[in-house]
Task: structure prediction
Amino acid sequence: MSDAAWETLSNQAVGAAGVVYFLALIVHLAEWAALRQPARTAARPTPPPAGGVAVLTGPGGETAGATSRPDRGHRIAFLGRLGVLLTVIATSAHLVSLVGRGMAADPNRVPWGNMYEFTLAGTFVVSLLYLVMLRRFRLQWMAPLVVGFVTATLMVAVIWLHAEVAPLTEALNSPWLVIHVVSAIIATGAFTIGGILSIVFLLRERRGAAASGPWARVPSPEVLDRTAYRFHAFAFPVWTFAVLITGPIWAHEAWSRYWNWDPKEVWALITWVVYAAYLHARATAGWKGRNAAILACVGLATLLFNFIGINYFSTSSQHSYAAPAQSSQIAPQEGAVSLR
Result:
């Protein structure tokens, strides 16, 4: 296949992934809507006619069959399985789009050369982590949130961040690109899921124990808090490896200095400090629940600002992949390198 054909395949795969993600979102929302419907088994006996027997009728007067609750449960389970299947298909197409991006470049390269490609990779990791951890942590209830986040982010990437495939600059063409960016992407995906769990924890806590409808499916605040902590505990050492080990090594290779006070470096360190405080407070001060969730949300905010805010609002950052308008023609400015 030619480079143009690979790029076309990548663009088509992104479009297909977005459509299937959207279908998966619709199915999962239908699953949640089914949970809000009152079960017809909550029926009342109708006074029997003379010489007859009592008949159970639902709220609208319909006869309630003995199989109404099993049928409803089967429908909800079917929608859940269908949503997961569609998410698997969408994630597979997502992977094809990343492979196509890398193969479209001449020479072939990893698909992390600009903000558009990093967004594709980051959302792929979020979806993949969700599917891998689905059964272990019983995350089925998170499906609309995760799929909705991935769908919306892909839409933003395609509309505002898309850039034509271009070769890497000399500074980016380094083995440290693979090591550093892979660890940063994995940590970003895990932090994102942990942040979503922390946000849901704060909302779930406000509802108290008397949760009904779809909220009855959301785990207890204690389980949400524990699961969020596990994702953060996994992501933190990976982020440490990316920010404090591979990042400085690559910076020294490109700039001859391990630390340059670049805005991207500074905000990556701020993100590390916030998450370090989150884990330290849980381990030593016994911070759990609301305080820990708020701190985790602050960490997620700094992570997103490091990814989006610096890329758009900083004029002094040497991380030249940032702005989508520049990503298709990355200027070979002195020492320019994409670390995050």
User: Anything to note?
Assistant: The chain has a mean pLDDT of 84.
